[in-house]
Write a structure and sequence with these properties.
The chain is α/β, with parallel strands linked by helices and 421 residues long. It contains 18 helices and 17 strands.
Length: 421
C-alpha cells in the first residue's frame, strides 16, 4: 500500500520554504558544478522548471550567474566572479547543496498522514510473519496487539530465547506499506537531513505522476540500535564542517519501527534514556534543540521496541513501566517446542531432520546444566554445517556430529579445587 503522490509545487510560495534559501541553494549548486543546464539544476535541487527559471532570472539580475550556451533550447549557466564570491561565503555558512528541503509544518503533516497507527495488522499477517518461529498463540496475539496500538513494546527474558529475532521479525509487518521520506527539512533557515540511503530502503513510485521530487518513496523505516546508542544520537547532530544538521534516530525512524536491542547495555543509562522519552511516549511528539538553544517540536510517530535479558525491575521504575503498554516475557522452551524448532532449523539449513539427533542434543544440553534455549538448534546445526564445509564433505546429522558441535559450542567448566596445604 502506498500513500499516493505529493504534487509538485508550481511556485516558490508553494514550496513552503523561504525564497532566499532556495536562491542560495541554487547558487551553491551552480558554483560547485562549474557549469550546468537549467534542466539539470532542476533535477539537482528537485524543483519545478518554472521555479528554477525564476531563481535563475534573479541570479542573473544580481549578476551572480551568466549564460554560457544553449542546450536544445535550455540555458547552460555558470557563476560570475561576483557569484563565485557569494557562493563561497554561503558555503562557509553551510555546505548543503542537495535536494531542496521541505518545511517543518509540511513534514509534520505528512508524518501524521502516514502514521504507524494506520498499519493494518491481522492474526493472519502476524502468523505469516512468524511462520519460521515456534511461538505460542498467546505470544502472537500479544505481538499483533502491540503493533496495532502503535505504543512501545518491551521484550524481556533470559539470553538465547529469541527476543532480538522476534523484534527484527516484527519489521516484516511493515514491509507492504510505502511512505514518503523527505531528503531534508528546513527550520528557521537551518537544514536537517532526513533521508538516509543506509536506513531507508527506496522503492519506485508510479511513473508519469506529478510528484514532488523533494520526497523519496520508501518502505516503512526500521532502525536497529544496540550498545552503541548514546543520548547525543537522540538530538540534532550539527556537523561543524558542513554547517547543517543530521536528523536524530527517532526522526529517521518516523512512520516505522525503532528497536533498542540489548536494552540496559547502552552507553547511556536506562534511566536517562527513558526519561528522555517520557513525553514522546505519552504525546507522540518530541523536542530537539538547534545550536542556538531553540527547541523545536517534531513528530514521534514510530513503534518503539525494547529487548533486554536484564531484569526489568532493576532497569526501569514502576512509573515508566506503566508507560510501556505491552510487556512480553520470552522464556525457555519446552521439549516439544525445542523439537519443532530443531526440525525447522534443519529445513532452513537443508539438513535431513533426525529425531534421535534432537533428543541427543537435549540430553547433552541437560548434561551441561543448561536450560532449553530457542537459539540452540540453529547454533548447533550451523556448527555441523561449518565442520562439514571445512572437511569438504556433505553435512550429515547424526549423534557424532551433534556431539562434536556441542563440544565446540558449550563452555567446559572445571570443578573448583582446594589449594594444596
Amino acid at each position: 500500500m502506498t500513500t499516493g503522490t505529493i504534487p509538485t509545487p508550481k511556485t516558490i510560495e508553494q514550496t513552503g520554504v523561504r525564497r532566499n534559501l532556495l536562491e542560495d541553494l541554487a547558487l551553491k549548486v551552480v558554483y560547485l558544478m562549474g557549469e550546468i543546464s537549467l534542466l539539470d539544476l532542476s533535477r539537482q535541487i528537485g524543483l519545478n522548471g518554472r521555479i528554477v527559471e525564476e531563481l535563475f532570472e534573479k541570479m542573473r539580475k544580481e549578476q551572480l550567474c551568466q549564460v554560457t550556451a544553449m542546450d536544445r533550447g535550455v540555458h547552460r549557466i555558470t557563476t560570475t566572479t561576483t557569484g563565485k564570491s557569494r557562493a563561497l561565503e554561503l558555503l562557509k555558512q553551510n555546505q548543503y547543496a542537495g535536494v531542496a528541503p521541505v518545511s517543518l509544518s509540511e513534514y509534520t503533516k505528512r508524518i501524521a498522514a502516514q502514521s504507524v497507527l494506520e498499519i493494518r495488522v491481522t492474526p493472519g499477517s502476524v502468523a505469516k510473519a512468524f511462520e519460521d518461529m515456534v511461538l505460542e498463540a498467546e505470544t502472537l496475539n500479544q505481538l499483533g496487539t502491540a503493533v496495532v496500538s502503535g505504543r512501545a513494546l518491551f521484550l524481556y527474558g533470559p539470553t538465547g530465547t529469541g527476543k532480538s529475532f522476534i523484534a527484527e521479525t516484527l519489521t516484516s509487518l511493515f514491509e507492504n506499506d510505502r511512505v514518503w521520506v523527505p531528503y531534508a527539512v528546513e527550520v528557521d533557515g537551518q537544514i536537517i537531513t532526513i533521508y538516509d540511503p543506509v536506513l531507508h530502503r527506496k522503492t519506485e513510485h508510479p511513473k508519469g505522476h506529478d510528484q514532488d521530487a523533494r520526497w523519496v518513496l520508501c518502505h516503512r523505516p526500521h532502525v536497529l540500535v544496540g550498545g552503541e546508542l548514546t543520548i547525543e544520537m537522540l538530538d540534532l547532530q550539527l556537523n561543524p564542517s558542513t554547517g547543517f544538521y543530521t536528523g536524530p534516530l527517532q526522526m529517521k525512524a518516523n512512520n516505522g519501527i525503532l528497536i533498542v536491542d540489548d536494552f540496559g547495555r547502552q552507553r547511556v543509562s536506562p534511566e536517562e534514556l527513558l526519561n528522555r522519552w517520557v513525553v514522546p511516549l505519552e504525546r507522540r511528539i518530541d523536542f530537539v534543540t538547534l545550536a542556538g538553544g531553540r527547541k523545536i517540536e517534531i513528530p514521534f510517530d514510530l513503534f518503539l521496541v525494547f529487548a533486554t535479558n536484564m531484569d526489568p525491575a532493576k532497569l526501569i521504575d514502576e512509573a515508566f513501566l506503566r508507560r510501556i503498554q505491552t510487556k512480553i516475557k520470552v522464556g525457555f522452551v519446552s521439549p516439544e517446542r525445542f523439537h519443532e524448532i530443531f526440525r525447522r532449523a534443519c529445513l532452513g539449513l537443508k539438513l535431513a531432520y533426525s529425531q534421535a539427533a534432537a533428543e541427543e542434543l537435549i540430553r547433552i544440553i541437560e548434561q551441561y546444566g543448561e536450560p532449553l534455549r530457542a537459539c540452540y538448534p540453529r547454533d548447533i546445526l550451523r556448527q555441523v554445517v561449518w565442520t562439514a564445509q571445512y572437511r569438504q564433505r556433505e553435512p550429515v546429522l547424526d549423534l557424532e556430529s551433534v556431539t562434536q558441535a556441542c563440544r565446540a559450542y558449550f563452555l567446559e567448566t572445571e570443578p573448583d579445587h582446594e589449594p594444596a596445604g
